[in-house]
Structures are given as C-alpha cells and as structure tokens.
TrEMBL record:
This is DNA mismatch endonuclease Vsr. It comes from Lentzea indica. The keyword Hydrolase applies. Belongs to the Vsr family. InterPro entries: DNA_mismatch_endonuc_vsr, Restrct_endonuc-II-like. Keywords: DNA damage, DNA repair, Endonuclease, Hydrolase, Nuclease. GO terms for molecular function: endonuclease activity. Pfam families: Vsr.
Length: 169
C-alpha cells in the first residue's frame, strides 16, 4: 500500500489537515452494467453538468480557465473552473465519486474496495480545499445535481463581492 502525507493550513492558520493518500489498489473488474457505466463516465474534464455550469457562467459575462492548477499549488490537484481575478476555485463534484449525501452510494459488488476508494476521494477533496485556501483561493464546490443557473448566480455574486475594491483612504 502506498501512502503519501501532505500538510496544509487554511487562510487563518487555525485548521490543519494531515492528508494521507491510501491507495485502494487496482480497480476490481466491474461486475454490473451500472458500475461499468459509472466507471466509464469518469472523465476528469468537461462532464455534462460542468459544461452546463460553464455555459451559465459565460452567459453572466464571467471568464475562467478550465482544468488548471493555480500557480504555487499542487499541480496534480487541478481545479475544474478557475476564476482568476476573484481568486475563486470552482469544482463541480460528481455525486458518485464525491459521495453526495443525496445520490452517493456504494456499489454492492466489491463494496470494501469502493468504500476505501470513495472515502479517499472525500479526504483528498478536503485536503485540496485547505491547500487552495492557504494559497488565497476561495474554494466553491457545486454538486453535479445542482441547478446550473442557481449555481452560476451564486458564483457571480461571490465574484462581484471579491472584486469590490476597498475605498481609498
Ligand atoms: Zn447528488
């Protein structure tokens, strides 16, 4: 079993997370059509919900980079949508992989392997949040089941609030 440890702290230095990557081992063969469909759908970039959200952001005049790691952060932790000016790192989390409380569920077959695998994703997400916050990024996570227009409205409001300049003395 391989494991690596990374540490980080949030903006305020209050929170420290020790991240240990636990390798669940090689993927077991998909035993059901449903599982293999889920596994096939696992493309890192440009899932349908992400594309819908990107279009909604674009309609609101927001411009962004896609699938990049901000300078000075772990290059293997790529952000789905990066709004550079406002320093917002936006993720569109898939309900299955990121264990959505409404739709996430463990496949019945190879249950233990999936439990380790999916728990690892959640822990890694938390660590990514901490690392990005430490580098001055506001992390926003949207579920793939979220309405893209509502999510885009929320992001647009955050962008506006973060782009406001303090009054000059
Ligand atoms: Zn969901």
């Amino acid at each position: 079993m391989r494991s690596t440890v990374a540490t980080g702290s949030d903006n305020y230095g209050k929170l420290q997370v020790v991240y240990r990557h636990v390798d669940a081992g090689p993927a077991p063969p998909a035993t059901s059509e449903a599982t293999s469909r889920v596994m096939r759908r696992t493309r890192r970039v440009g899932t349908a919900p992400e594309l819908a959200l990107r279009r909604a952001l674009h309609r609101r005049g927001l411009r962004y980079l896609v699938d990049v790691a901000p300078p000075g952060t772990n290059r293997r932790r790529r952000v789905d949508v990066l709004l550079r000016g406002a320093r917002i790192a936006l993720f569109v989390d898939g309900c299955f992989w990121h264990s959505c409380p409404e739709h996430g569920q463990l496949p019945k077959a190879n249950r233990e392997w999936w439990r380790v695998k999916l728990h690892g994703v959640v822990v890694r997400d938390k660590d990514t949040n901490v690392q990005l916050a430490a580098a001055g990024w506001l992390v926003v996570r949207v579920w793939e089941h979220d309405d893209p227009d509502e999510a885009a409205d929320r992001v647009a409001a955050l962008v506006a609030s973060r782009l406001v300049r303090p009054p000059q003395a």
